[in-house]
Amino acid sequence: MSRDWTKSFFRDEIFSPGSSEAVEAAVDEVKFIWKALKLKKGSRVLDVPCGTGRHALKLARRGASVLGVDVTPSYLSEARRDARGVSNLRYARVDNATPRRA
Fold first, then answer.
1. Which of 12, 41, 53, 85 would suit a FRET pair with 61, their CA atoms being 20 to 30 Å apart?
2. How far apart (Å, rounded) are the C-alpha atoms in residues 7 and 24?
């Protein structure tokens, strides 16, 4: 892997988080994230934006406690469906345009 991992991690093409290519790539991406961030079982991870949960679910299955946040209801519905039974993974819909409470 090159020293500047951003050159290979982020791509220029239009991205669809539920595409088969994205789901397949998530396996290696999560391995990289786990190692680069020195995560271990019980580590807390915030995945923003989590999209369909392709990273969040894999991180949770490795033992991290994960909160996935996204603004897109259809993505979150898919993520929640795929994460049934995974107790260390939660999803929340958050829209930064929503007024905050003081």
1. 12
2. 19
Q: Which residues is 44 bridged to in the sheet?
A: 65
Give the span between the Cα atoms of 52 and 16, in whole angstroms.
9
> Looking at the whole model, is its pTM more than 0.85?
no
Burial of 89 (0-12, 13-18, 19+ CB in 10 A): buried
Instruction: Report the candidate in 84, 24, 20, 38 with the shortest Cα–Cα distance to residue 57.
Output: 84
Residues 6+ apart with CB under 8 A from 40: 63
Q: Measured in whole angstroms, how far is the alpha carbon of residue 83 from the centre of its chain?
A: 12
The angle formed by the CA atoms of residues 50, 53 and 55, to the nearest 5 degrees, is: 85
Measure Cα distances from 8 to 5, 11, 37, 51 in Å.
6, 7, 17, 20
Task: Output DSSP code: residue 64.
Answer: -
